From TrEMBL:
This is tRNA (guanine-N(1)-)-methyltransferase. One of its GO terms (molecular function) is tRNA (guanine(37)-N1)-methyltransferase activity. The gene is trmD. The keyword tRNA processing applies. It is found in: Cytoplasm. It comes from Deinococcus humi. Residues 3-220 form the tRNA methyltransferase TRMD/TRM10-type domain. Belongs to the RNA methyltransferase TrmD family. SUPFAM superfamilies: alpha/beta knot.
């Protein structure tokens, strides 16, 4: 079982997210556990106040480090104690896969002007879900919860399905289609309806390369491209210099076409 513990001033924001859909079902089956910890329970005053004005002046309030410490001390040992902050390491699929191997993850969800800077000494990692500012860490925590939980064995129905997802393969995902076969003049590509699994796989890989090149070319640097991918990218207009910058292998050598030679007597030879 993987346990997620969230230290927050608003556990009611995370409760429905952690109790519905796939995550809720995984909890019922004993695959995941979600522990919502109210930071106010660790206040040392009758008003349950957990924050104070910042030293040096300025707007807003800062959550006290001693409150965070008492809350952390109430929990079983954790593999990671994670502070959700704009200053943190970008949260990526690679990070999600790493965290999915753990048994207990603790998240500090800030509010107001965040936690006292000394809280950083209590954590093992700082994470950010993007270069923007939110009102608190709960929404970011929900994103991390879903991204990590779905990677645990048994949580999603098909254990192979996440391996073809965007970023898991290093590329954006290929486009998906279902019924109806035609909608407002737009038809499902014939290759997907032909039953040739090899052709489908080749089409999907080419489409993933095409999408990534058009929308997120920065991902191609670490995508683990194959010689066949290099050939496909060249056909999409990529230059040899770009392939070299992405550390892509050279494309497969072109196949030599054997030409038949005609002898003077009219016979043919290879």
């Amino acid at each position: 079982m993987l346990t997620f513990s969230f230290l927050t001033l608003f556990p009611e924001l995370l409760a429905p997210f952690a109790g519905e859909a796939i995550i809720g079902k995984a909890r019922e089956r004993g695959l995941l556990d979600v522990n919502l910890v109210q930071l106010r329970d660790f206040s040392d005053n009758k008003h349950l106040k957990v924050d104070d004005t910042p030293y040096g002046g300025g707007a807003g309030m800062v959550i006290r480090v001693d409150v965070a410490e008492r809350a952390l001390m109430s929990l079983p040992p954790a593999d990671e104690v994670i502070l959700l902050t704009p200053a943190g390491q970008p949260f990526t699929q690679t990070v999600a896969e790493e965290l999915a191997q753990k048994n207990h993850l603790v998240f500090l969800c800030g509010r107001y002007e965040g936690f006292d800077a000394r809280t950083e000494h209590l954590v093992t990692r700082e994470l950010s879900i993007g270069d923007f500012v939110m009102m608190g860490g709960e929404a970011a925590a929900a994103c991390v919860l879903e991204a990590v939980a779905r990677l645990r064995p048994g949580v999603i129905g098909d254990p192979e399905s996440h391996r073809a997802d965007s970023f898991s393969s290093g590329l954006l995902d290929y486009p998906e289609y279902t019924r109806p076969p035609e909608w407002r003049g737009q038809r499902v590509p014939e290759v997907l309806r032909g039953g040739n699994h090899g052709a489908v796989a080749a089409w999907r890989r080419e489409q993933a390369l095409r999408r990534t090149l058009a929308r997120r070319p920065d991902l191609l640097m670490g995508a683990g491209l194959t010689p066949q991918d290099s050939a496909a990218l060249l056909n999409l207009g990529v230059t040899a210099e770009q392939l070299q910058a992405w550390d892509a292998p050279p494309p497969p050598p072109a196949k030599r076409v054997k030409r038949k030679k005609i002898r003077i007597d009219g016979s043919q030879s290879e």
